[in-house]
TrEMBL record:
GO terms for biological process: bacterial-type flagellum assembly; protein targeting. This is Flagellar biosynthetic protein FliR. It holds the Pfam family Bac_export_1. Role in flagellar biosynthesis. Belongs to the FliR/MopE/SpaR family. The keyword Cell membrane applies. It is found in: Cell membrane; Bacterial flagellum basal body. One of its GO terms (cellular component) is bacterial-type flagellum basal body. Keywords: Bacterial flagellum, Cell membrane, Cell projection, Cilium, Flagellum, Membrane, Transmembrane, Transmembrane helix. PANTHER family: FLAGELLAR BIOSYNTHETIC PROTEIN FLIR.
Length: 275
């Protein structure tokens, strides 16, 4: 006769619940998986399926009760790890969207905005277009599969533990967020440079012929030049996008290692003041 104790049931629940929490955290924040157009049922089903596959390979788990305070703290910590890993990859797409926002403002398309289901806000038309291009490149390069492999690897580099996380990992995530502005400006430089030359030429033309209506001819010209430069630069976006994906994957892989390396260091006793 098979008998099950409460400890065995708690161990089985924890073996599935804690990895599932990290997986769902990554799915909620990562690009493509966490898209607002994907139903919540599909996200949860994907997370449970991945947890059933990954759970047997997870290293030894702490012996805390999942319903105790220690178990709830571990649950919260795993959710933070998954969200941080997914957000690291989401920053790459935010940089591409930032480039679209800069290009739209320079072209004069700042008024052409659409509802973005990811951020629950509004974004420009060029930003949405570049985000769709980045999503197709994300799928074409199988980066979504690499991201899942990094998630599986994180359970070995940062096992499920009751030890609190080191705050330096979140500082690295904040530093990585600066990539949004630097990369966004770099990707939008062709449009900004072309429109700067166009605006200078329009200014010289207005000075030479004051009778011309600058507002009547300026907007169609800047819009046409911006779209033309965007179309010409699209074939050359493959290399920087691929490099961005590689940087995002590497940052996602290094974050759990940073927490695990810091957690493995012995705690130094506080120095005592001489009396």
């Amino acid at each position: 006769m098979i008998t099950l104790s409460t400890a065995d049931i708690n161990l089985w629940i924890a073996a599935l619940l804690w990895p599932l929490t990290r997986i769902l955290g990554l799915i909620a924040a990562a690009p493509l998986f966490g898209n607002g157009s994907v139903p919540v049922t599909v996200k949860v089903a994907l997370g449970v399926l991945l947890a059933l596959i990954i759970a047997p390979t997870v290293p030894a788990l702490p012996g805390a009760d999942p319903l105790s305070l220690a178990g709830l703290l571990i649950l919260l910590q795993e959710a933070l790890v998954g969200l941080a890993m997914g957000f690291s990859m989401r920053i790459v797409f935010a940089a591409v969207e930032m480039a679209g926002e800069i290009g739209s403002l320079t072209m004069g398309l700042g008024f052409a905005t659409f509802f973005d289901p990811n951020t629950q806000g509004r974004s420009s038309a060029i930003s949405q277009f570049l985000a769709l291009m980045a999503t197709m490149a994300f799928l074409a390069t199988n980066t979504h599969l690499v991201l899942l492999s990094v998630l599986v690897e994180s359970f070995s580099s940062l096992p499920v533990s009751a030890q609190p996380l080191y705050g330096g990992g979140f500082k690295q995530l904040a530093d990585w967020g600066g990539k949004i502005f630097s990369t966004g400006v770099q990707l939008s430089l062709p449009i900004v440079a072309a429109l700067l030359i166009t605006n200078v030429a329009l200014g010289i033309l207005t000075r030479a012929a004051p009778a011309l209506n600058l507002f009547g001819i300026g907007f169609p010209i800047t819009l046409g030049v911006g779209l033309l430069v965007l179309a010409m630069s699209l074939p050359y976006l493959a290399t920087p996008l691929q490099q961005l994906f590689l940087d995002g994957i590497e940052r996602t892989r290094l974050m759990p290692r940073t927490w695990s390396e810091r957690a493995s260091l012995p705690l130094r006793p506080a120095p005592r003041a001489d009396r």
